[in-house]
Write a structure and sequence with these properties.
Helices cover about 40% and strands about 10% of the residues. The protein is α/β, with parallel strands linked by helices and about 400 residues long. The protein has 2 domains: about 150 residues, Aspartate Aminotransferase, domain 1, CATH 3.90.1150.10; about 220 residues, Type I PLP-dependent aspartate aminotransferase-like (Major domain) (Aspartate Aminotransferase, domain 2, 3-Layer(aba) Sandwich). It has a 7-stranded mixed β-sheet with strand order 2-8-7-6-5-3-4, with helices on both faces. Strands 9-12-11 form a 3-stranded antiparallel β-sheet. A two-stranded parallel sheet has the order 1-10. InterPro entries: Aminotransferase_I/II_large, AspAT/PAT-like, NHTrfase_class1_PyrdxlP-BS, PyrdxlP-dep_Trfase, PyrdxlP-dep_Trfase_major, PyrdxlP-dep_Trfase_small.
């Protein structure tokens, strides 16, 4: 009898975590490594949020809470949706989990049966397909290339829908591309979805506040209220408030789905960390000036990185609308050989050679379902980003 379950064979470890771990190992060996593979802000959590957590500890809020979130945090989340998105929810339509990933996982585990299909535009966050597979569903990957601005079109969505389609996953702004769907782009998709009542929408809005220039964020249930009753809107505090380690995500959806997700959570993690919930409440209800400050800093870094990469031989880097990633193409470098003799056969070979030969850690595009690209997280200092660009430029110049 095998020890491991068959379902485990359907999935693989996260490539982003694997690359970050590999970079850490090389650094521990004494190598000069610039790691641009992890997707988390490099800023401190706002002071008032940290103070709220300390106060919660001192007040004794260290016991179990309701399985899927404290009533006060759920009320704060309802106010957030009303204030920022024009969406009205009651606390019974809110769920809180240990990070946004658990919200997505719970929803898919609670709803998918064997053979149910989930449409996932590529490039995608690495965990979407594996969570679908673990839940017994079938990922339907729709490639959205550079010529489409990395966006799913209404025609491609229509063509991908079948009688077995249960979910469409949308992420805007996107990890890894930073692409955003504005109101018009979402309207084109929601018009299609109105014609297919069996399809639910799972929208990952975790980068909502990290948008640049004149881009205006919108979310599907806001654009088309008639879809609200089959939409799970997921968000969290990790990216907007630099709270990745606090592990708080939340979602809003119709009550039957929220109740089903709570049942699942009650038999897995149970409640999120009580202290983190009080911190998240402070983040959502307290001063919001931190968001604007971090947004401007990320936009400045974006411009630095995009300009630097576009000056590299063989690299084309589009300008993202949000998040803190760029997703350049290296199609002109495929088939070359690095200065150290490594054949650049694909984007994984490029990323591995770049790390080994220059000490710059990036994530290869195949991990996100679309090649030949690579992802850089510019949640790093100016010095690190500038030096990384210098090393990447030298590496590309050495490819022939």
């Amino acid at each position: 009898m095998d020890l491991l379950s068959d379902r485990l064979s359907r999935i693989k470890p996260s490539p982003t975590i694997a690359m970050t771990g590999r970079a850490a190992t090389l650094r521990a060996q004494g190598r000069d490594i610039i790691a641009l593979s992890a997707g988390e802000p490099d800023f401190d959590t706002p002071l008032h949020v940290r103070d709220a957590a300390k106060a919660a500890i001192d007040a004794g809020h260290t016991r179990y809470t309701a399985v899927d979130g404290t009533p006060s945090l759920k009320r704060a989340i309802c106010r957030k949706f009303s204030r920022e998105n024009g969406l009205d929810y009651t606390p019974s339509q809110i769920t809180v989990g240990t990070g946004g990933k658990q919200i997505l996982f719970n929803a898919l585990m609670a709803t998918l049966n064997e053979g149910d299909e989930v449409i996932i535009p590529a490039p995608y966050w690495v965990s979407y397909p594996d969570m679908v597979l673990l839940a017994g569903g079938s990922p339907v990957i729709v490639e959205c290339g550079l010529d489409q601005g990395f966006r799913l079109t209404s025609h491609a969505l229509e063509a991908a829908i079948t009688p077995r389609t249960k979910w469409l996953i949308l992420n805007s702004p996107s990890n890894p591309s930073g692409t955003g769907y504005d109101h018009a782009a979402l309207r084109a998709l929601t018009d299609v979805l109105l014609r297919h009542p069996q399809v639910w929408i799972l929208t990952d809005d975790i980068y909502e506040h990290l948008v640049f220039d004149d881009f205006q964020f919108a979310t599907p249930a806001q654009v088309e209220p008639r879809l609200k009753d089959r939409t799970l809107t997921m968000n969290g505090v990790s990216k907007a408030y630099a709270m990745t380690g606090w592990r708080i995500g939340y979602g809003a959806a119709p009550e039957p789905l929220i109740r089903a997700m709570a049942v699942l959570q009650s038999q897995s993690t149970s409640n999120p960390c009580s202290i983190s919930q009080y911190a998240a409440e402070a983040a959502l209800t307290g001063p919001q000036d931190y968001i604007g400050q971090s947004r401007l800093e990320f936009q400045r870094r974006r411009d630095l990185v995009v300009a630097g990469l576009n000056a590299c031989v063989g690299i084309e880097c589009p300008v993202p609308q949000g998040a803190f990633y760029v997703y350049p193409t290296i199609r002109d470098l495929i088939g070359t050989t690095s200065a150290a003799g490594t054949p650049i056969t694909d984007d994984e070979a490029f990323a591995n050679a770049l790390l080994e030969e220059t000490g710059v850690a990036v994530v290869f595009g195949a991990a996100f379902g679309l090649s030949p690209h690579f992802r850089i997280s510019y949640a790093a200092s100016d010095d690190q980003l500038t030096e990384a660009i210098v090393r990447i430029r030298r590496f590309c110049e050495g490819c022939a």
